[in-house]
Amino acid sequence: MKLIFKVLGLLMVIFIVVVVILEVKIISFSYNEKPKKSDAIIVLGCAVYGNTPSPFFRERLEEALRLYNEGYGKYIIVSGGKGPGENISEAKAGKEYLVKKGVPRELILTDDKSFSTYENLLFSKEIMEENSLKTAIIISNKFHLKRVSVIAKRVGIEASFSGVFVKRYVNEEIYGFLREVPALLYIYLKG
């Protein structure tokens, strides 16, 4: 009986150590990674309310706009399909938002087929290849960036990263950092 408790205790300690290591990786990557001038800026999809980008998506689009205006990339790729409750795809909503902000329509490329982070990046890679784009800055929320970096490497995108933190939704952002631990572990284990 004592052996079972010792084994369970050891497993619990290993579990806690793994969780802490992954959380440190997620947080340190999100705050230390900096965007580099690239051929394209990829905005990962996020919820759309009817036709309007959600606050998280709007912040991602604003970051893309800032980087575009500062000359970090010539093209912007907006990614995301049409989910439940959305009148249009996330990609289309993002494109319209950026056009209204002054980005020329022809410089915004869209992937409106994707429904996951993996698909966002896979289909964005296809768009990059079709347009002879070699490098990208990938934008998402800070808590998402470490997992995004692993997936980007797997699909073959040479990337740097830029994250947003939506201060008025701090509870959701903190929850995102916590939720990413099992998501990142899953990606690592999936290989």
What's the gist of this structure?
This protein is of the alpha/beta class and 191 residues long.
Quickly list its features.
191 residues; five-stranded parallel β-sheet; 7 strands
Describe this structure in words.
This protein is α/β, with parallel strands linked by helices and 191 residues long. It has one domain: HUPs (Rossmann fold, 3-Layer(aba) Sandwich), CATH 3.40.50.620. 54% of the residues lie in helices and 16% in strands. α1 crosses α6, α4 packs across α5 and α5 runs parallel beside α6. Keywords: Membrane, Transmembrane, Transmembrane helix. It holds the Pfam family DUF218.
What are the SSEs and their pairings?
Blueprint (H helix, E strand, L loop, with lengths): L1 H31 L7 E4 L4 E2 L2 E2 L1 H15 L5 E5 L10 H11 L7 E4 L5 H14 L4 E7 L3 H11 L2 E7 L5 H21 L1
Parallel strand pairs: 1-4, 1-6, 4-5, 6-7
Antiparallel strand pairs: 2-3
What share of the residues does DSSP label as strand, in percent?
A: 15-25%
Task: Please state the overall shape, judged from the principal axes of the Cα atoms.
Answer: elongated
Largest sheet at a glance? 5 strands, parallel
Q: N-to-C SSE series? A: HEEEHEHEHEHEH
What's the CATH C level?
Alpha Beta
Strand order of the largest sheet: 5-4-1-6-7
Total DSSP helices: 6
Rounded mean pLDDT score: 95
Q: Which architecture does the CATH hierarchy give at level 2?
A: 3-Layer(aba) Sandwich
Ranges with pLDDT <50 over ≥5 residues?
A: none
Q: Return the structural class.
A: alpha/beta
> Which fold name corresponds to the CATH topology?
Rossmann fold
Q: Name the CATH superfamily assignment.
A: HUPs
**Mind telling me the C-alpha Rg?**
18 Å
Q: Alpha-carbon distance between the termini? A: 36 Å
Q: What percent of residues adopt helix (DSSP H or I)?
A: 40-55%
How many structurally independent domains?
Answer: 1
Beta strands, count: 7
Domain DUF218: 39-159
Transmembrane segments: 7-31
Pfam family, one: DUF218
GO cellular component, one term: plasma membrane
